[in-house]
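Z., the sequence and structure:
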Amino acid sequence: MNSDNQTSKPLDNFSLASGQHNRIGLCFDQLRGEIDSIMVRESTYRDRIFQLEKDLEVYKRAYAGLQFESAQLQTRKQEIEKQNEELASRVKANRVVVLVDGDGAIFDDKLIEKGQAGGHAAASRLSSSVNQHILLTEGGTDHQLWAHVFLNRRGLADALGRAGLLGAKHKLEDFMIGFNQATERFTMVDVGSAKEAADAKIKSLLESEIKMPQTAKIVFGGSHDNGYVTTLRSHITAGFKHKLILLPSYTEVATGISELELPLLDIPDLFMREKLNVANSSNMSIYPVSGKSGTASSVGSTDEAIAPHPGPLNPPSYSTIAMLRAAPRASTSTSDLDSGLSSASSNETDDALSRAPTVAGPPKLSRRINPHLPLSKQKPPPCTLFYLANCKHGAGCRYGHNYLLLPEHYDEIRENARKAPCPAANQGEVCTWGKDCCYGHKCPQTTKCYFLKLGKCKFQGPSGDMHRD
């Protein structure tokens, strides 16, 4: 029994050792499995890390590219901002434009009489007054001042002379030169005698200037004429009222314009305060044409009499006189000339042109022109010397002194008178009327005159100058 016990103990020890060995092997197997799993995962992680590193490099290059582009865009932005500032400074409303209708807003005769010095003084007075007004109302002086004056020089000179302002008449051209030379942005332009030529220039310039963003203010010197009301109201409706300033010339502003309620800039001693009074000149139509264009109803008979004016006449404005007195003279053929075109003989003309006009009272009756007949066929025809110079026959003249004439009638009379030679010039003498002479100093056909070749042309100046270009 003891022997069996001794034999079983080694076996139990061996079994125990064998069991422990198996457990250790199993643990090693598990550990090996885990290590293999770790190795596999490590390989996967290495591959993933490698891929991420590649992606990171791509993103780094992309980010660097974006940074470069951002720097370029920032530089471009700064350049554009600088350009915008430059453009803004260019487009900045820094222009102040003065527009003057010189046919109604007439500069003070005392300034005109001084010639070029007066022109300089007028420009200086206008400039300083406008600049001061802008400083007080806008609070700055950083602007450019432009001034444009449009007028009919010959018509204005004629009206000044007939109003007795002879000094201003003779110095008007010098005054215009002085005004133009005062500064490079000031211009005074002679637009000629076409109907409403100054109005057209001013309206066109007003239209373009008021819409320009660079124009801060427009000082409008046409408040004497309500013909501008529609144009001004249109610009006010369009939203430009804040740009308009009225520059009155006469004491009273035209009714329609005063109703627009625009701010006023009154400059003392720059313009005449009252209209030129030329109503008493014997060479003017007794009843002035109303407005600039002048309208009158036409009647079929020249014998229809108009009732005499019930009271004293209002003096016509210069704008009316300018059209009546200084319309252009069209060239016409000498072959059309006959004695009916001029209502004065050569002797009458000599005498009439050598004497100063005298004051003639209004006729008792006035008649209208028959629109279906030329002036030379009216019964009687209008007297050329009465309307253009001075007729010595007065009420005893066989030609008409009592017509109500429109601007186009004065044009026709003037045109017809130019077809007849000036007696003084025709005899080789100096005409004391010079450019203001109502008769022709040159043949309208000049060197192309058909009657000159036949020796029958009425323009027979001894020196031959009457047929030279």
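The chain has 14 helices and eight strands. The mean pLDDT is 77.

Let me know what you think.
H.
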